[in-house]
Amino acid sequence: MKDNRQNHNSSFIDGVWIDSSSSEPFAVRDPGDTRKVVATYLTAGEEETLNAVAAVKRAFGAWATTPASDRAQYVYALIDLWRDRIEEVARTATSEMGKPLRESRSEATRAIVEMRYWAAEALHLGDRTFESTRPNTVAYTIRQPIGPVAAITPWNFPILTPLRKVIPALVCGCTVILKPAVQAPGPSVLIAEMLEKVQLPKGVFNLIVGSGRSVGGILTANPDIAGISFTGSTQVGLAIERVAADRNAKVQLEMGGKNAAVVADYSNIDHAAKEIVNAAFTTSGQRCTSVSRVIVLKEQQKELEAALKRYAEERKVGHGLDEESEMGPVSNDEQMEKVEHYISLARNGEGHIITGGHRSSEEGYYFEPTIVTDVRPDSPLATEEIFGPVLTVVPVKDFEEAVSANNGTVYGLTSAIFTDRMEFAHQFTMRSEAGMVHVNHGTSSEGHLPFGGWKQSGQGAFGIGDTSKEFFTNLKAVYRMNPAG
């Protein structure tokens, strides 16, 4: 291994940028113009991954006993550097995964708020005291870091998702290995650069740039990794859970979704349509929280469809670096093939397309904002995750059928209802089989609230808010007797 400080597009292990003989170059192409290579990274393999595991194991003891307030100071120092590099981080994310620059800037700016939240949480890592049933006895609980952890993150939110794992891990006293998706590792490389500059002790944070197959499997199975925090597909998440269960490692899994917006007796159809279209087509529908289904009472179907169609057709599709773009391309050829597969189902009788339905460029992965209506509740279009700019409309006869359709998938991440009726709002909130429910607005989230799903959408402690402490720490009950005399 040698120091590769002239080219940081590689892994960062034990305080050193790695360029080993086993590294292989991986080219990231611009999804908005696939003729262009935007960056080339040196990918790690087994040797580098095992070295990273050894590094986090060595560093854990000293880091875990560092006062939490001191650990937080590194986060504040990172924030100071981050402010000056927001535009660089945003442009890197857009260039690699395609989302409009306005979205990437928002993601990079929001990161400051969330990092400040977690730095402040360093002083709230204590737990509870209890009245003991014994005389002269104090009873209380404390939280202690679980150990070295692996953070495995996706390409669709390449800025916030790594930070939402790395920062809580560091604040809670865990050492961490970050493995971002190889399709968009650039923001994670910039995070590593900044953590190096704030002089985080070596080995506390490590970055592995490599494929899930060659790197992720090693991290998941290694007995020195106490926990795995993963965001990505349900298929991969369940595979991680099976491997982790064999050695009783903790998991925090944020997986797929097939999120519905129910419209039932709502007078402001224009508002509902605007919220739904934003939730459906932001990031080209490549968000686990994207609204993918609209479940609407039949008497409001036509009015809602007209409004949805109007707002969908108003969205400006273009290259992510174009300041005017409101929707960029999907991120890679695999996603494009998936979208085209589901559109073929619509053309073959699973519904009918009222707008969109076509790839709009051969030079990039652009697909029109698409709405498919008259979809059955049990159709693959209504039950399977598409992860693209496709919104399906499922008409139902009444509220009970709407609730049944909403719950009729293996997923349970988030859901929404638009209604003027208090009883509908209450019933839906209580009966929706999802970790997050929204009333009269789209499926957005806030950085200080718990974020997670039910069923095949999640496992382990909810993330983002203070519930992440439940993953990154172990709970310990303490009984201390002070004998009289």
Our count of helices gives 15
Summed up, the domain count is 2
The parts where pLDDT drops under 50 for at least 5 residues are 1-6
- Classify the fold: give the CATH topology of the largest domain: Aldehyde Dehydrogenase, Chain A, domain 1
> What is the overall silhouette?
globular
What is the share of helical residues?
25-40%
CATH architecture field of the largest domain: 3-Layer(aba) Sandwich
The neighbouring-strand order within the major sheet is 14-15-16-13-12-18-19
Largest sheet: 7 strands, mixed
Between the first and last Cα atoms, what is the distance in angstroms?
Answer: 62 Å
Structural overview:
- Helix content is 39%, strand content 22%.
- With 485 residues, it is an alpha/beta fold.
- The protein has 2 domains: 12-255 and 457-477, Aldehyde Dehydrogenase, Chain A, domain 1, CATH 3.40.605.10; 259-448, Aldehyde Dehydrogenase, Chain A, domain 2 (3-Layer(aba) Sandwich).
- The chain has a 7-stranded mixed beta sheet with strand order 14-15-16-13-12-18-19, with helices on both faces. The chain has a 6-stranded mixed beta sheet with strand order 9-8-7-10-11-22, with helices on both faces.
- Strand 8 (176-179), helix 6 (186-197) and strand 9 form a beta-alpha-beta unit.
- Helix 2 packs antiparallel against helix 5 (160-172).
- It is globular and about 75 Å long.
